[in-house]
Amino acid sequence: MQWWLIVTAVVLPLFIQGPVQEKVSEWFKDHELGEDQAFAARVRTTSALGDGDHWVLPDRHPIGDLAFLGDTSLDIDERHERVEKLGGRPVVFHCGKPCTSISRHLVTLTGHRAAPVHIDSIEARVLTTRKAPMGTLALNPSQGGGPVDTVHIDLDAQDKQAHTVDQWKNPTEKVFTVEENRFAEEGEPLDFMVVAATRKPLVYEWELVLKVSSSGKEETVTVRDDNGEPFSTVGADPDWDYGAAYVFNYTRMRFEPARR
């Protein structure tokens, strides 16, 4: 055997130890995990204490048509199924400065790379907009986990990047990924409560776009709901001119015409 073959056979294993061996191991691990996504995403549209149970419908309905929404003898899922059959869309209000319509989506990211995946940016990509239902507004106010990052996206703004929120959950001017460093570790969940807001009478269909980097490689990851459908945010406002507007009276346990 040539002497240089013997030297190569001895030196090469020594050379790939340490950082180089670690990089090689990460490369093989990444290929085992798959390169289609830097992490796995699980999404759940959710609500918070105090949200209430508010709906907008495309047609004008007499108050009796919606009495079932206040019927506590019915399961809440049954009530929601019935109002959805009437074309109803749920709406949530957040009244900071100013009041806005919002939707909440709990996004759980789990790292899918051997090396940590850094979240470089988070923003919304609007796919479609259309007019929000304006036939009937039904207001049913409310009577009363681990650490989660809350980010706020203004769908009406040209800049749809995720911003931080203050202690009252109102959006700030600070871009979340500029202020905070977040890494998705392999196999460890990282939760974001994504709050999307509009002050316009529109229905937004949108998806979440995350720019991430790992081991010097940049990627773009698109997140939709667990069924692969875009997120939906419906604009509503009690001051808008609906065909009919009702509010639930907990004293009389019935819907009554909302005061204009």
If you had to describe this structure to a student in words, what would you say it looks like?
Strands 1, 2, 3, 4, 6, 7, 11, 15 and 16 form a nine-stranded mixed β-sheet that branches. This protein has helices at residues 3-15, 19-33, 76-85, 176-179, and strands at residues 39-46, 54-57, 89-95, 99-111, 117-131, 136-139, 149-154, 163-165, 171-175, 183-184, 189-198, 202-214, 217-223, 231-234, 244-249, 254-257. 16% of the residues lie in helices and 43% in strands. The chain folds into two domains: 1-33, no CATH class; 36-257, no CATH class. It is of the alpha+beta class.
Total count of strands: 16
**Cα gyration radius (Å):** 25 Å
Number of separate domains:
2
Count the DSSP helices.
Answer: 4
**SSE pattern:** HHEEHEEEEEEEHEEEEEEE
Tell me roughly what share of residues is in helical segments: 10-25%
Q: What coarse outline follows from CA principal-axis ratios?
A: elongated
Helix-strand category: alpha+beta
Low-confidence stretches: 3-34
Mean pLDDT: 83
**Separation of the first and last Cα atoms:** 96 Å
Strand proportion, as a percent range, falls in 35-45%
Largest sheet: 9 strands, mixed
